[in-house]
Amino acid sequence: MASLQGKTALVTGGSRGIGAAIARRLAADGADVALTYASSEQQAEQVAAQVRAHGRQALAIRADNTDPKAVADAVARAAAQFGKIDILVNNAGIFRAGSPAELTVDDFDATMAVNVRAAFVAIKAAAEVMPDGGRIISIGSSLAVRVPGQGMSIYSASKAALVGMTQGLARDLGPRGITVNVVHPGSTATDMNPPDGPHADWQRSLMAGQQRYASPDEVAAVVALLASPEAQAVTGAAWTIDNGANA
Ligand code: NAP
User: Fold this and answer.
1) How many angstroms separate the alpha carbon of residue 175 from the centre of ligand 1?
2) What family does this chain come from, according to its entry (predicted)?
3) CA atoms within 13 Å, Cβ hemisphere of 182
4) Which CATH architecture fits 8-241?
């Protein structure tokens, strides 16, 4: 039997990249999957079709993370469709880079709204409809732990904030057997960070392990492990998958 048989999941930012891979992987492991997107409706529907190809239910929901109400409504819609949410993956994120002179207060606010506030809003809403033993996993970044170059102050701050929030929520929700963890990808081949981009060789040069980008599927595999019953003892943790860039 697939390890997530009978489970339901909500993945934010599931239309592309890491989130799409997570949605597909959770479905392959047996879960029904709802996914949100900001604007890529067609790609979100394609991922939903891939979920259904695994014999699972799927639901694609437009919900911009900058709007807290939209995020809470997306959780409510997924819960209404599936009856519960066992697994919440806060994946949607944006990356705005620059020096302090280049970055604006709007960049700061937008990054915090999408990468941090929306995760809290989703967790707050999902915790209401999550059975005991549920799973909350947020996608952080290896840049939350170590910042190896210039221009990443706001993004790194947002991902570091997820660590503190994860630890606090692990305490709050632990009595219900709900685990709360953060996964820190390093360089992963997506639209956000293409492996042929201008900074890709520099990123590869930082790696202690194989000097290559991870695939979204490799990140999804780590998320799937944390979502599985086998990971009940893992909570308040940050797992890095970065080919050793932070070693
Ligand atoms: P991506 O290819 O740019 O995809 C981003 C996803 O998030 C898309 O589904 C997008 O939806 C959604 N999204 C963006 N802004 C949103 C908003 N305001 N509201 C709702 N959804 C929104 O990015 P990715 O590389 O897969 O990144 C996924 C996560 O991993 C992010 O949290 C990112 O910070 C993190 N991460 C990535 C890397 C990397 O190297 N790629 C490394 C470390 C951490 P639309 O398609 O509708 O725009």
Assistant:
1) 31
2) Belongs to the short-chain dehydrogenases/reductases (SDR) family.
3) 28
4) 3-Layer(aba) Sandwich (3.40)
